[in-house]
């Protein structure tokens, strides 16, 4: 993993990378809320929000956590993805996490300017109100305290990842699947 | 298993394996692809359904409506919506199996479709989960149809490959079959060459085999030439090329005891008068030339009697052994010879007016060799003393056997009256065990006296009765074989063997006596056989299936080229008694016998010595590698 980082991004991001590994390792012994606090803060502090078009030259590129760290930035789904996998690695149950497409009102709940956005949500129980991990607002808040976000659709690794299914060309059609494959190639696959 | 069959099996196996392999690979690839496609279909539809359900109200009616709508409009095995607690809210399923696809095929290539799942949310809250499973029915149908098409193609390709193989094999087969024939022929000691095939690998083999055959032929020809050289050296007079004294004595001994020879005959001795004087007056060279002319003249005058033997006994003495010549005719014949020789003086080959004198001894079977020789010497001495050109001496009752017969009546009468008998003489192997007995035909005359073969065979031959007599001998031999356990050898004349009617009747006789036929050894006189090479080969092919053996008797009796033994597939050779007589004191003939044994062993033939007179001779013969013996000594050994 470290080797991949060095060959692709050089020595510069190495420090952040090591900090990330330490944060994840440290979060293992904590409670779910403490884990989220640590991971959320780490990424919000160490990653800059940069548009995909500038960073990757594509309209919408889903970067792997390693790529985001290598670049030191990413857009909303890159934040969500990096946090999602880091939390999984720190020991949070996959069933409690969802990547959620939301409609964000820029400038507060009353604003009429909306934007497609992605956040990571945490469900303590299936019926519970989720906690929202976002890069727009650094603080973790329950969903009811985020009136600026309107949820549209959520998903996680289940239902996409099929154990034992071999890679074939058709799988590349799925953006999600493509991401998982790249992660595997880069040696990071919690 | 033959090479060709093995090749066939190999080709079929390889084809089957190749096709089975390609079939399995293509089936598995197709199935894998179909599974992927079905999974993608399941996952995509699950995501789409979850997305649209997330936007709708979550009451049961709406959920049911949406699930049903998706299920009814697509090809799904299962569409299910479960709530957060995992309870099934709506489920639509169709587990129908595809029609027209055999169950064993679905068992052999099962299609496992991965379920597509997606989360349905209600605002910030989780609402449930949809599971979609695309139906594998169409995949099975497509896989089955593909398999069927592949099978048709495989069969067509297999058939085509088979046809091509068949053509290829036919092309390669012919030279291989020819090579096998050649190899078999070689193992049967027939040496044939075949044309070189176009297949390069085979061509080299065939070339090698042909070269080998040519070499073997050369080798045999060399061996034959060597035998011929040895025979000439040991048994011919170098000056006149007539038989020498030793050979002549061997033949005389046979003529006195062997039933095949006429029971009586005459021994004529010619002494050239004053050879020393001719030598002195005309010189050595002229004298030699004179002797050669005498020899040539005598030879040409007795040439039509092939059972007679002319020899130069020593310096001035010539001998003529004339079996069957009666004492009455002999003096006249001798005078005729002298008159013919007188021609030599006319053309000035010699200056001697009185060329020579004849001493004639009449003999009959049972006379001792020394008695006959002494009688002839006495006759010659008398002739020289009395200045009589020809003197004949004979035992008083010699004439008695030479009664003139109406041979045709006698022989045909004997055939119908079954007056023929057989006598037999033993042939032993190296351990003195009986190899076989040689049959001799005898005729019991109406007055009860016996006639031996030598007495009536020349007349039968003249009357064209040989095939009939030979057949009678075979008939009697088969009767004899029914009583005894050892094999019997029967002499056949070359006339009979060349007579297709005779061979047909012989084969039908053999067929009737299949059990006995395997113990029959047929032998042909070498002299007759030389003219009938092809007839003998054909004869061999006819009788060999019955287990009969074929051989040559009196091998080497007549000077002339040695026949091509390797072409004839003979089983045995009986070496003429002329070489056997006194073999223990004759190194030249020992060498000759050794060479004959060598060539016979090379051709897988048994060698048997004829006319062995004493144990000393047999000891030497056994030493030389001869495997069997016959003659007075052998008969004595068996009785003693």
TrEMBL record, chain A:
It comes from the Bacteria. It holds the Pfam family Peptidase_C93. PANTHER family: BLR5470 PROTEIN, PTHR39327. This is Transglutaminase. It comes from Chitiniphilus eburneus. The lineage of its organism: Bacteria, Pseudomonadati, Pseudomonadota, Betaproteobacteria, Neisseriales.
TrEMBL record, chain B:
Residues 404-640 form the EAL domain. It comes from the Bacteria. InterPro entries: Cyclic-di-GMP_PDE-like, EAL_dom, EAL_sf, GGDEF_dom, HAMP_dom, LapD_MoxY_N, LapD_MoxY_peri_C, Nucleotide_cyclase. GO terms for biological process: signal transduction. One of its GO terms (molecular function) is cyclic-guanylate-specific phosphodiesterase activity. Residues 170-221 form the HAMP domain. This is EAL domain-containing protein. It comes from Chitiniphilus eburneus.
């Amino acid at each position: 993993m470290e080797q991949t980082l060095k060959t692709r991004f050089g020595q510069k991001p190495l420090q952040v990378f090591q900090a990330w590994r330490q944060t994840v390792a440290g979060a293992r012994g904590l409670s779910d809320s403490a884990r989220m606090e640590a991971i959320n803060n780490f990424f919000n502090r160490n990653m800059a929000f940069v548009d995909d078009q500038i960073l990757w030259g594509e309209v919408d590129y889903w970067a792997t956590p390693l790529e985001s760290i290598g670049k030191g930035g990413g857009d909303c789904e890159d934040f969500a993805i990096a946090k999602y996998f880091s939390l999984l690695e720190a020991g949070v149950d996959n069933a409690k996490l969802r990547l959620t497409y939301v409609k964000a009102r820029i400038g507060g709940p009353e604003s009429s300017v909306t934007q497609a956005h992605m956040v990571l949500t945490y469900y303590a129980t299936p019926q519970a109100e989720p906690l929202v991990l976002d890069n727009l607002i650094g603080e973790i808040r329950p969903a009811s305290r985020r009136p600026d976000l309107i949820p549209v659709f959520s998903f996680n690794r289940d239902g996409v990842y099929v154990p034992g299914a071999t890679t074939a060309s058709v799988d590349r059609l799925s953006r999600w699947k493509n991401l998982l494959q790249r992660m595997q190639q880069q040696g990071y696959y919690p | 298993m033959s090479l060709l069959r093995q090749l066939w099996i190999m080709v079929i196996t390889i084809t089957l394996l190749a096709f089975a392999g390609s079939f399995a690979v293509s089936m598995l690839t197709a199935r894998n692809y179909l599974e992927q496609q079905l999974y993608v279909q399941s996952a995509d539809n699950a995501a789409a359904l979850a997305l649209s359900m997330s936007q709708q109200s979550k009451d049961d009616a709406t959920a049911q409506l949406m699930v049903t709508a998706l299920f009814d409009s697509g090809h799904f095995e299962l569409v299910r919506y479960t709530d957060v607690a995992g309870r099934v809210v709506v489920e639509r399923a169709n587990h129908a199996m595809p029609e027209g696809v055999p169950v064993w095929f679905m068992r052999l290539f099962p299609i496992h479709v991965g379920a597509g799942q997606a989360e349905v949310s209600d605002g910030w809250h989780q609402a449930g989960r949809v599971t979609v499973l695309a139906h594998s029915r169409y995949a099975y149908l497509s896989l089955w149809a593909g398999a069927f098409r592949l099978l048709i193609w495989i069969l067509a390709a297999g058939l085509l490959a088979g046809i091509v193989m068949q053509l290829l094999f036919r092309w390669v087969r012919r030279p291989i079959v020819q090579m096998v024939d050649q190899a078999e022929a070689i193992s049967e000691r027939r040496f044939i060459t075949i044309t070189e095939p176009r297949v390069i690998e085979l061509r080299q083999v065939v070339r090698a085999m042909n070269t080998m055959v040519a070499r073997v032929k050369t080798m045999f020809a060399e061996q034959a030439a060597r035998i011929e050289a040895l025979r000439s050296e040991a048994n011919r007079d170098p000056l006149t090329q007539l038989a020498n004294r030793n050979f002549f004595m061997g033949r005389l001994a046979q003529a006195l005891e062997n039933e095949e020879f006429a029971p009586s005959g005459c021994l004529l001795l010619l002494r050239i008068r004053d050879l020393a004087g001719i030598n002195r007056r005309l010189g050595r060279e002229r004298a030699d030339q004179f002797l050669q002319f005498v020899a040539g003249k005598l030879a040409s005058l007795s040439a039509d009697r092939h059972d007679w033997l002319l020899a130069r006994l020593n310096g001035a003495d010539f001998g003529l052994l004339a079996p069957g010549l009666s004492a009455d005719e002999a003096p006249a014949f001798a005078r005729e010879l002298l008159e013919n020789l007188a021609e030599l003086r006319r053309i000035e080959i010699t200056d001697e007016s009185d060329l020579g004198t004849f001493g004639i001894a009449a003999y009959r079977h049972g006379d001792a060799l020394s008695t006959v020789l002494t009688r002839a010497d006495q006759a010659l001495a008398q002739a020289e003393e009395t200045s009589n050109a020809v003197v004949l001496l004979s035992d008083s009752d010699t004439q008695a056997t030479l009664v003139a017969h109406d041979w045709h009546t006698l022989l045909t009468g004997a055939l119908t009256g079954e007056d023929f008998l057989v006598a037999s003489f033993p042939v032993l192997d190296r351990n003195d065990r009986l190899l076989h007995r040689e049959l001799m035909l005898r005729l019991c005359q109406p007055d009860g006296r016996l006639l031996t073969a030598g007495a009536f065979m020349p007349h039968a031959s003249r009357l064209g009765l040989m095939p009939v007599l030979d057949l009678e001998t075979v008939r009697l031999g088969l009767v004899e074989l029914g009583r005894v356990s050892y094999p019997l050898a029967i002499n056949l004349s070359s006339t009979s063997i060349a007579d297709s009617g005779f061979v047909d009747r012989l084969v039908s006789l053999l067929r009737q006596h299949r059990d006995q036929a395997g113990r029959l050894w047929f032998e042909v006189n070498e002299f007759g056989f030389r003219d009938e090479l092809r007839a003998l080969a054909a004869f061999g092919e006819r009788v060999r299936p019955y287990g009969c053996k074929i051989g040559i008797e009196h091998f080497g009796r007549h000077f002339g080229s040695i026949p091509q033994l390797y072409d004839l597939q003979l089983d045995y050779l009986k070496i003429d008694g002329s070489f056997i007589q006194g073999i223990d004191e004759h190194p030249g003939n020992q060498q000759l016998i050794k060479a004959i044994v060598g060539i016979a062993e090379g051709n897988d033939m048994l060698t048997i010595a004829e006319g062995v007179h004493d144990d000393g001779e047999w000891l030497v013969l056994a030493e030389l590698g001869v495997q069997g013996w016959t003659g007075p000594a052998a008969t004595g050994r068996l009785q003693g």
